[in-house]
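Quick start: what a row looks like.
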Amino acid sequence: MQNTLIWFRNDLRVHDNETLYKASQQGNVIPVYCFDPRHFEQTPYGFSKTGKFRAKFLLESVIELKKSLQKLGSDLIVRFGEPEKLIPEMVKKENVTHLYYQGHATYEEVNIEDNLTKLLKDINIKKFYNHTLYHLEDLNLRIDDLPDVFTMFRQKIEKNSRIRSTFPIPQSIKSIHQLEEGEIPKLEQLTSEIIEDDERSVLLFKGGENNAIDRLNKYFWDNDQLKNYKETRNGLLGSDFSSKFSAWLANGSISPRKIYEEVKKYEKQVIKNDSTYWLIFELIWRDFFFFYAMKFGDRIFFINGTNQNKNLKHHFRKDPASFEKWKNAQTGIPFIDANMRELAKTGYMSNRGRQNVASFLTKDLKIDWRLGAEYFESILIDYDVSSNWANWNYVAGVGADPREDRYFNIIKQSNNYDGQGKYIKTWLPELNKLPKQFIHQPYLMTKDQQVENNCILGKDYPRPLVSLSYKG
């Protein structure tokens, strides 16, 4: 009888999990999750690799996976340690014949896979890819031939590839072994940071597969917001301006194919329009970044990004003081500071906000983009290696953007997406009394106007790191 150890990684679900489903059809299953201590160490620039928001979300997701497996007659073996050290011991003790696991795209994660599999040459090993909408094997492209520009990638796969059907949840799982289940760590074992819920948060994210499905049902069916997605997706306030699926997608609590099938169901039962397609379009962007990272490997972490034929190092500088002001929402540019404060308080920021704060750091302050990427890695509740680093490549002009000189005019963006300053005033209450004419550029006030509006620059709100202008 086949005796399969499943190494769970960022596939923390029982629905549409090819790894789990196929193992359950073949015999005995031993599900394992390892809290890898390297994920909780510091990054090269001194940030916690997994900050408090994602640590809490991860714990909630693992707890729910354990409960789901128990309902199917199994359980989750939990360990704290490096998988390549722990799993070989389990394989030997339980006479495991097969190892199943989900493959990753990026350097550190692939390196761990390689180190583990080198130690298990006497058993059958199978790597699955459950993280993307389009399966790696269905691209009909060699990874090396993958288009470097998203539009070309999208056109090719939409024309030549197919989206596989989801796998059902196993009816039951046979799971016989002598291993102790182990204890899921407490949050304080993973981080010393204190989490306080903020009532201004667009959504109180809670990890786990059931919460992911609940969010899907609420956004699509209860609140019927999918039909408006394309028009509202650049919003800044409220739970339903966008889907908010990203955190659950990142650790695999929900499958992109599950979302796709629900979109198709919605199109049949409610409406098919540009908005329903646009959600699929965004899932294809996510695929693009995953396969892009797979193609370029550790180059997405270099200062030049994937533009190795150009020396872009001189474009970026080290300026610790300015970086700290950016990180701590002290730039003196309200739209930037509001977004950075939301991120610090909640672990979340809209996609529109992310593009703007990244552009400001790299194009206006000209600071090494990798500092921003590492800070995002630490603090984002929805951090995904490929999406985060490839997106920063893109905005910094060292990656997949065909326009290396793409520039976000922050004041224009602020006027376009927060014209009345409601978002700014939500996160920067010190600017609550500013009239519309100054909410985007307080530094345009005279000294008398500062007194009149109870906002003294340099005291109540910082002077700008750089002076930005826009005539709308």
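That is the whole record. The chain has three domains: 1-129, 131-164+209-300, 313-452. The beta strands are 2-8, 27-35, 77-80, 98-102, 124-128.
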